[in-house]
Amino acid sequence: MYRCNVESMRxxxxxxxxxxxxxxxxxxxxxLSPEDKMxxxxxxxxxxxxxxxxxxxxxxxxxxxxxxxxxxxxRIVMGSHCDSVKNGGNYDGILGVMSxxxxxxxxxxxNIPHRHPLTAMIFTNEEGSEFPxxxxxxxxxxxxxxxxxxxxxxxxxxxxxxxSILTPEVxxxxxxxxxxxxxxxxxxxxxxxxxxxxxxxxxxxxxxEDAGKDIGVVTCVLGQMLxxxxxxxxxxxAGTFPMKKRHDAFHAAAEALCYLHEEIDKLGYEDLVxxxxxxxxxxxxxxxxxxxxxxxxxxxxxxxxxLNKVREILFSLEKREWQQCKCEVVLGWNRxxxxxxxxxxGYVREAVEELGISHMDINSGAGHxxxxxxxxxxxxxxxxxxxxxxxxxxxxxxxxxxxxxAASVMLNAVLKCDQED
Length: 421
Prior knowledge:
five-stranded antiparallel β-sheet, globular, alpha/beta
């Protein structure tokens, strides 16, 4: 069994944390930003230093490849993203990039024999922080392979027209055209050239830490549905309109949200998660009774039958009035549970057991580039623990030893996959 180098991983973490340093221990590194370019420049420098061949595609996805011993075999690719959310941490996404680098460096340094070309990769715009949606460029690449009902979400011209949330007059396509690492479409990942994808990532939750495990053998990305729950009343003066006569949309929404929590919790599924994270209120004036209120509800679980039970509870809201207001439940979007390739999951499990690292099977509640790529080629993921379960924030942290363990697991799992044609 081979092991990656702790000090080499430490150096990577310290170096990449400088690109977009927000000044309080975390980073802001939007896709295609100057900070993103700095991180990619460093990636290129390190990958060229070990003799890897660098390619970029038309979406600015980047590939560094060490040739294998048998010409004609497909590439095995490893990677993740190097962009971040605003005031994010130093591990989300970039751990997968650094782990892939560490695998290639270990292979080169120790002259580890391998049959297939081995590729480290950077995906562009996973977070969608400046240019929505998230997982944009993996979605574009996998467009022709994903279920038809998802394809419109990642249609190329729509994605190129995505507007910056910072400067709305600038589109993703315009920013991409000016980015120095924009390359050729023929360099995109494809089933014809690539055999499998391994993505290492932080867990972004507390499950591994609570269980005292150092590695998560990821089996799937949870099914998810997003609904908007809308309430319609009428506006009136806050000081002169009697309470009993009001059709207060905000009060209606508050009452309905409490009802949802009570009824969903009665289902008794401890691994079911649901969140209200966005609201819209009109007219949003302190002296006016609200005539409209809209909240989001994001629901995630592996089993579609559980999601259906929640869906029934949601639509039951429409069957009654809430504080004399009408309720409407509208689907935003949904996705099925995406299961990783069983053979690749098996290689990860074998590798972690042979390395003697504590581990457990786990699912992913968060979305990742790997979920869209899985429609195109066999795919799997490896999780490292997140301290206190925190992610998408500056206190996000995973120990260098745990990061290195994850890279070592990926290295050995990739070498098992390499034994296949």
